[in-house]
């Protein structure tokens, strides 16, 4: 596999409890070893208090919904080519519709 000239930046958009959890730390640590990925944490302060215009723009945005997570704000910052990805969280938040498929 041909390597890129720069690492892929991955934005982790989630409340601090999820971003700083041991499993997430282990996952990001393992993915950063090869130098192909760099993670940007969008924690509580950024998500809740900073305007979207100040958020860093990653190559990939991964969002994890939880209580207190401002989903609509996160969707608002989503680049157009990601529009359907976060919009799907609205449906995924409620598990019964997923089980009805």
Which features does this protein show?
101 residues, alpha/beta, Rossmann fold, 6 helices, 44% helix, globular
Distance N to C terminus: 37 Å
- What is the C-level CATH assignment? Alpha Beta
Largest sheet: 3 strands, parallel
Q: Strand pairing plus helix content: what structural class?
A: alpha/beta
What number of structural domains do the residues give? 1
Arithmetic mean pLDDT: 76
CATH topology: Rossmann fold
Radius of gyration (Å): 15 Å
Please write the string of helix (H) and strand (E) elements.
EHHEHEHHH
* CATH-derived architecture: 3-Layer(aba) Sandwich
Number of helices: 6
- Given the C-alpha coordinates, what overall shape results? globular
- What is the number of E strands? 3
Poorly predicted ranges (pLDDT <50, ≥5 residues)?
Answer: none
The amount of helix comes to 40-55%
- Reading side by side through the largest sheet, how are the strands ordered? 2-1-3
Report strand %.
15-25%
Give a description of the structure:
The structure is a single chain. This protein is of the alpha/beta class and 101 residues long. The protein has a single domain (8-100), classed as 3-Layer(aba) Sandwich (Rossmann fold), CATH 3.40.50. The chain is 44% helix and 16% strand. The chain has 6 helices and 3 strands. Strands 2-1-3 form a 3-stranded parallel beta sheet. The chain is globular, with a radius of gyration of 15 Å.
Write the layout of secondary structure elements.
Elements: E1 8-13, H1 16-19, H2 22-32, E2 37-42, H3 44-49, E3 60-63, H4 71-77, H5 83-92, H6 95-100
Parallel strand pairs: 1-2, 1-3
């Amino acid at each position: 596999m041909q390597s890129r000239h720069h690492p892929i930046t991955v934005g982790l958009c989630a409340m601090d409890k999820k971003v700083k959890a041991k499993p997430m730390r282990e996952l990001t640590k393992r993915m950063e070893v090869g130098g192909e990925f760099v993670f940007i944490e969008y924690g509580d302060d950024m998500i809740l208090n900073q305007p979207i215009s100040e958020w860093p723009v990653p190559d990939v945005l991964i969002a994890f919904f939880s209580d207190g997570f401002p989903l609509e704000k996160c969707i608002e910052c989503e680049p157009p080519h990601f529009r359907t990805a976060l919009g799907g969280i609205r449906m995924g938040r409620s598990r019964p519709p997923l089980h009805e498929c």
